Amino acid sequence: MSKEIELTDPSLYINRELSQIEFNRRVLNEAANDNHPLLERAKFLAIFSANMDEIFMVRVSGLKQQVLLGIDKRPPDGLSPREQLVAIHRAVTQLFADAARCWKEELHPQLKKAGIHVLNFSDLKSRQQKRLSEYFEREIFPVLTPLAFDPGHPFPHISNLSLNLAVVVYDAEADETHFARVKVPAALPRLVPLKPLDPDDLLMPAVQKFVWVEQIIAANLSRLFPGIQVVAAYPFRVTRNTDMEIQEEEADDLLLTMEESLRQRHFGSVVRLEIAENTPEDIRQLLISNLRIGAFDVYTTSGPLGLSSLWELHKLERPGLKDPTIKPDLPGPLRFGDNIFSILDRQDILLHHPYDSFLPVVDFVNAAADDPQVMAIKMTLYRVGPNPPIVRALMRARDNGKQVAALLELKARFDEETNIEWAKAMEKVGVHVVYGLIGLKTHCKVCLVVRKGRDGIRRYVHLSSGNYNTVTARLYTDLGFMTRNDDFGADATEIFNYLTGYSRQDEYRKFLVAPVNMRRHFIALIEKEIEHGENGRLIFKCNSLVDAPIIRALYRASQAGVKVDLIARGICCLRPGLPGVSQNIRVISVVGRFLEHSRIYYFHNQGQSDMYTGSADLMPRNIDRRVEVLFPIENPEMRQSIVDNILQVYLNDTEKGSLLQPDGRYLPRHTLLEDGQTPFNSQNWFLNGRVPHPLAKEKAEGR
After folding, report:
1. Whole-model pTM?
2. Least packed by Cβ within 10 Å: which of 387, 413, 472, 559?
3. Which positions are catalytic?
4. Range of the domain at 343
5. What three-state secondary structure class fits 150?
6. What sign has the CA pseudo-torsion 330, 336, 341, 344?
7. Which CATH number characterizes residue 518's domain?
8. Is the domain of 632 the same as that of 560?
9. What CA–CA distance (Å, rounded) separates 165 from 217?
């Protein structure tokens, strides 16, 4: 008799941090993929760099804090905090080298061929250098502040993610060498345009030239140190701990507490120092000593620091070097200009963004703001973005005398400042603004409109997997749903009573609500498939799968013969393909033009299927420490359409899809194609009118 496998065995789990790094490897692979237009590849390199910054600011900093405090809290994979830091260092060192190589050997020369020259100051002609020195005098010099470091001047504070120059100067009169720091102001463009100076450039309007701003500053440092010899200058960049701990129980005013915490973010402990590879050892040691870090925290690069600045290139008006502009659809019922509430009285509306326009969502809130029959609007807001039309609609609704309540989550990481400003603006016009529940982030996406109808009060609801943000709605894939369903309206009302008042309600008519009842019901749905054994079928699409109890439930399903397909874009801690444990589980990650953000959970249930979508990922933070909502798709035709025309399409992606291997690596599916097979790109299929594709013939019941 074979020994029963213990499903808590650490060898059955992939480390969360290493899985997140693997996701960023897939992002970097997109930067190296020459099937993308050139400026899109630069964009992917910028995204990779920004993502890695966040990993250090949040994840690495948290592990360092655990080591410092002697906390040996281990994830399901069993690695200690110190072991995780060692593994992360090993993985990211190679990734950073790959990123620098991608820039130097691929993107930089190819951009030059396309007429976009990113130049070194030292390679310019004298008249070009003179022109940039004039620019320095006019635009840069007035905002620079050199900070000396010597017995009379303490080591200056280096703010988070700032680009700096470590400057070595020699005072001949005193025969002394000194160190100074010059910060590159963030308000300046990182890539300074070089205006056409050569006749050849004027004849070639497609040619655009740029110079790194830190090199312009380094070449003109003598203006900052008159009478002193500038020996050398070396760029460096610091990453700090920005994972804020908010003691809400002790905060009388969460808004003021958040504002103070944001100010403190710039002063967190240093977790990473980036330097150029030519930085001499004495400067390196000076920085290590004064930033109070170890040699382990230093990363050298042969390329420019802070490649997230390549977003500046992506903003160039070069449409031939970018993806074509998408033209989103409107679902049939919305094309004829009918009143949105009249449409919802007749039928529900499903939106698949960005292929379906986000405009109906904006129109829904605008209509509610202006409709004299609307009495109240209640809405959760997580990432609203700059100049948000939905927030302005809520403010106008209040001006129109409607009752308006907005739960605006101040703790949406890295969007806190924007959210604080809009919270203040809404409060000024009388919107009832609340900031959520103590100890919980409010991440659900719900809008409730209460309207007088001929037969009494009617409630209209919009629910979504994505934010009420018109910018990200063009970049993220999400599902949105609008309905006048009475049970949905009642559940939405209860959700807002829970968020704005006091409630210990533990069941809802239709919704699965975290942290109230979601975990219990979700695992029960998996257990039901386990009962069906080999006739069971699960398809989950999410951003991340981390939660150990759900992973164990999926392992049990696989052991029972249930076929499980997981479309997990980012982190996945489950190991697929393990004999006797997960041999019936397949994990696919799709990384492409759009950020896969929708969450869809399908339970076959012997043909009487259940399907939920909404804001929640399968992570402990989502299920236990956030207010999340998953809502059912109850219309059988709509449910089957999502299976056939969304989930199955992603499962068939052989161009942007990668298969997770048992060892935690991802294998691009295009490498598995036979000669002559054409790769299938799911996102292009959605963009191109969703024309049937030969690979899309698989059914959800099998593979």
Report:
1. 0.91
2. 387
3. 443
4. 332-500
5. strand
6. negative
7. 3.30.870.10
8. yes
9. 9
